């Protein structure tokens, strides 16, 4: 009991620590900017730079039972922005990872310690996530490191596709490419029925949003569920979900 309490204290201080006293329930967060989180990120007209307003709603508050794997592969207490040290070339804000984890613990209090594994990078299209790419291999490496403590990968949250709405060919090939991505990911993680929760786009960078959305809403792979974000409020840029939307 003392060892587990000590582990929690170290995590709350954001010290690098390997907690061996609880089997973590791992959730991989992958995709592009709306997964990395842009909630509360707007342009500062005085400096003409993107800034995060720092507002963290109750659903996104830190929880001692929710950890995050850092870019340096250390477990720390999870807090917004989850992708601050992952999507380093962009300004990050509130994303879906923490509210999802908090919602799970609210519905299932005995679920255990959740280990979030952020991997999302803004502005990336589905081809950049194909097996063998740097993004894919980094994600697999981070997942494998997360598993070393004896945890179990319980789900993948996937929010991506805005970049694939620019080019018609990319939009038409989105279903084929995303299905292959999911299949390869499950194979490399040795979990053929790993639950994947994907988001159907609320916005896009180009005119072919509906083609990509149709692909996202019509996946016939087992254990792939889709949450439709269409109609949720967007930041002034018309592309990114607001904090309440996340």
Automatic annotation (TrEMBL):
InterPro entries: Carb_Esterase_6 (IPR052940), SASA (IPR005181), SGNH_hydro_sf (IPR036514)
Example GO molecular function: carboxylic ester hydrolase activity
Domain Sialate O-acetylesterase: 24-246
Gene3D superfamilies: SGNH hydrolase
SUPFAM superfamilies documented for this protein: SGNH hydrolase
Signal peptide: 1-19
Signal listed as a keyword: yes
The keyword Hydrolase is assigned to this record: yes
Name of this chain's protein: Sialate O-acetylesterase domain-containing protein
Naturally occurring in which organism (per UniProt): Citrus sinensis (Sweet orange)
Organism phylogeny: Eukaryota, Viridiplantae, Streptophyta, Embryophyta, Tracheophyta
